[in-house]
């Protein structure tokens, strides 16, 4: 069974699929939370390792990592070192509250693409009360910063209300269609939502059931009553990403460059859980790293995952 699951994971990693039409609304997700896919039977854990000064620790091998799920050690079946290509999506708030910041955010997203791995698969979703894919179905991903900039600018209207939760759900579906086993979403917004079909609890469950790491960039207007930075922090913590809160929109470009650097210095571990129940329960994960030269290390990884099954949609 373990070999079969890993074979499915590898097979899906080399498949190519189509995405949404550029500039057209992505279908709004329904109320049913999807179960773990067969590829997600192999649990992916994105791990960032730094020393106490914040410098990335590179060159670690598989044997340096240990994964414990609910107190039980797990065998690492798949290991990817730092600077492996990823499938990555930028989810950008294009509601009326972002009107003044539109051009700066587009420039920041372009800077991110320029700093990314040359073999990354990049896509963009712009959201107000609708969620719009930036790239066409014929070419749902790109690694060309110029193509990405033009497509994202065309998709961003900077008007209307905010359906952030629906955008995250659409992003989780879209990123799963990529060919790279390493998957990342980057959300740029204020954490507010006033137009989604989905709820935050549904989105959190789907994020926990996904193998994607979520980074959040909170562009918070102090006068915006619906902004919720706490939700942005929780999404990042649950998936092994990180949250950033620049003091001014001019700093978003530097933040996205830092995220690109963080992604390129992260490891990915994959394992098939020794707990075979697919009951929708939450499994807590702890990752530790042994340093061959005995440095004191700081490890960032997802705090757990949801194991799929009927209870996921509850």
Description of the molecule:
With 314 residues, the chain is α/β, with parallel strands linked by helices. The protein has one domain: 3-Layer(aba) Sandwich (Rossmann fold), CATH 3.40.50.410. Helix content is 26%, strand content 24%. A six-stranded mixed sheet has the order 7-6-5-8-9-10, sandwiched between helices. Strands 4-11-1-13 form a four-stranded antiparallel sheet. Strands 3-2-12-14 form a four-stranded antiparallel sheet. α4 runs parallel beside α5 and α5 packs parallel to α6.
Write the layout of secondary structure elements.
Blueprint: H1 2-13, E1 42-51, E2 65-69, E3 72-74, E4 78-80, E5 87-93, H2 102-115, E6 121-127, E7 131-133, H3 145-155, H4 164-175, E8 183-189, H5 200-209, E9 212-218, H6 229-239, E10 243-244, H7 252-264, E11 266-272, E12 282-289, E13 297-300, E14 304-306
Parallel strand pairs: 5-6, 5-8, 8-9, 9-10
Antiparallel strand pairs: 1-11, 1-13, 2-3, 2-12, 4-11, 6-7, 12-14
Helix pairs in contact: 2-3, 2-7, 4-5, 5-6
């Amino acid at each position: 069974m373990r070999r079969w699951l890993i074979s499915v994971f590898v097979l899906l990693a080399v498949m190519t699929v189509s995405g949404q039409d550029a500039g057209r609304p992505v279908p709004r997700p329904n109320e049913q939370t999807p179960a773990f896919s067969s590829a997600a039977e192999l649990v992916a854990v994105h791990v960032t390792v730094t020393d106490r000064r914040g410098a990335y620790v590179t060159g670690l091998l598989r044997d340096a990592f240990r994964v414990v799920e609910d107190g039980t050690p797990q065998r690492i079946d798949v290991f990817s070192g730092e600077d492996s290509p990823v499938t990555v999506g930028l989810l950008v708030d294009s509601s009326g509250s972002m009107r003044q910041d539109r051009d700066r955010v587009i420039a920041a997203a372009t800077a991110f693409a320029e700093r990314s791995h040359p073999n990354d698969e990049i896509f963009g979703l712009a959201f107000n009360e609708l969620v719009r894919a930036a790239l066409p179905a014929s070419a749902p991903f790109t690694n060309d910063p110029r193509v990405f900039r033009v497509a994202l600018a065309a998709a961003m209207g900077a008007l209307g209300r905010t359906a952030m939760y629906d955008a995250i759900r659409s992003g989780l579906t879209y990123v799963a269609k990529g060919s790279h086993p390493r998957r990342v979403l980057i959300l740029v917004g204020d954490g507010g939502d006033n137009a989604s079909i989905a709820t935050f609890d549904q989105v959190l469950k789907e994020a926990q059931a996904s193998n994607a790491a979520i980074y959040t960039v909170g562009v918070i207007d102090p006068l915006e009553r619906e902004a919720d930075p706490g939700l942005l922090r929780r999404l990042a913590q649950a998936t092994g990403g990180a949250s950033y809160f620049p003091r001014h929109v001019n700093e978003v470009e530097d933040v996205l460059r830092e995220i690109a650097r963080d992604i390129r210095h992260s490891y990915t571990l994959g394992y098939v859980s020794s707990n075979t129940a697919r009951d929708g329960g939450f499994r807590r994960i702890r990752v530790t790293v042994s340093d061959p030269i005995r440095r004191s290390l700081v490890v960032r990884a997802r705090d757990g995952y949801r194991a799929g099954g009927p209870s996921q949609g509850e």
